[in-house]
Amino acid sequence: MYYIAADFGAGSGRVIVGCINKGELSLDEIHRFPNRQINLGGRVYWDFLSLYEELKTGIKKAFEKYGSDIKSIGIDTWGVDYGLIDENGRLISNPVCYRDSRTAGILDKAFAKLPKDKFFSLAGNQFMEINTVFQLYSAVLENDVALKSASKLLFMPDLFAYFLTGKAVNEYTISSTSQMLNSVRRKWDDTIFNTLSLPKNLMQEVVLPGTEIGRLTDNIQEELGGNASVIAVGSHDTASALAAITADDDEWAFISSGTWSLMGMVTPSPLLTPEVLASDFTNEGAVSGDIRLLKNITGLWLLQSLVKEWSAKGMECDYSKMVVEGENSTCKSVIDVTDSRFTAPKSMIEAINGYCIETSQEVPQTQGDYMRLVCQSLATEYAKVKTELEQSTGRAIKTIYIVGGGSQNGLLNKLTAQKTGCKVVAGPVEATAIGNIKIQAMAAGELSKENPLILKGKGMELKIFKP
Q1: The CATH number of 245-427 is which of 3.30.420.40, 3.20.20.140, 3.40.30.10, 3.30.70.250?
Q2: From CA 316, how far away is CA 34, in angstroms rounded?
């Protein structure tokens, strides 16, 4: 059987076909495309129409190559963002990007209605202005016409699935990023919706990973030249990436390394203690039914922003070369990656330089200096979060699994091992696609605990870094 994994990151997307033969997975990247944010009328949007067209292009290419051997399709994306559907089943507008400024200062307004500790006891999420609940609350306070016209709220992966199948659901792992889902009951929380006057009628049934959402509609079948089921996977990309990790004990943590660094541990149930709240952790759903206790950390967004600036100036930006230069750099400066000035600055170079000047540190001079500074800063934050995780869970961490595109950065992996004192297992690079396909194969009965997935080949290698 063949499975299609559509993986949308904040910077790019791709469609990958996976085939499992005697438990061994092989991957074939069919289509890759950029994901951009568009500033229009003072608001930042995702170009959903373009992304949906790219998704269809990828699926069509997969059908052309593999035909009726394709069993199903799974879609994963970044968290928190959503689209609104009207009563006629049409998209009301492009989804607003979480980096839009509409939620600036929203936390204090929300806490005036629902105290922070009470809020946390219900949803168990890290308080970030970008979370769905605060995006939705800002729309309520703005008296948003689009919200009044809506009949359904669908998170990004649910939105793609809806226009492929005509079926509207809210998948569990992506819903758990919204801060509107009760973390214990796994249902939309009445207190949160009622207290903040949010339209609960827009929410859909929460379905678990492995659930069949529906088959492609007749029109989509005709357009794309094939038919398959759409399966709810770990629709939050980190949930799918985590599903690709195999560990023999519980003395481990994970880092999903990309635009964001999501660092955490797997726990059997939500941890809602004052210590967890104070440490700013979030309880989110895992495909296993467990909880991903994690913290969202600004990740390679820092480097992505630097590269964008350098490229705009006509400078060469060879990532591999910059990593080597970073290894040879003597820059010792460290920034606080959680500082809000690095969230969406007009110039990341100026933001970093300004921080270094304010803290009496060396200002980086070369691309290699900036690379080392970013990697040192992220590794320093990882070490801090590792200690907080151990204190919150009462469990020791001896191994850190780093998955995602950032696992290819050898300098960051090496510094993470040094700063945390843990063995670092980097890879697989394609963890998100692997986890996505793994869940589809389990739903099809091709994989089980007795018949596990075997990882070999390109994109599935592991590299070890010792402290």
Answers
A1: 3.30.420.40
A2: 20
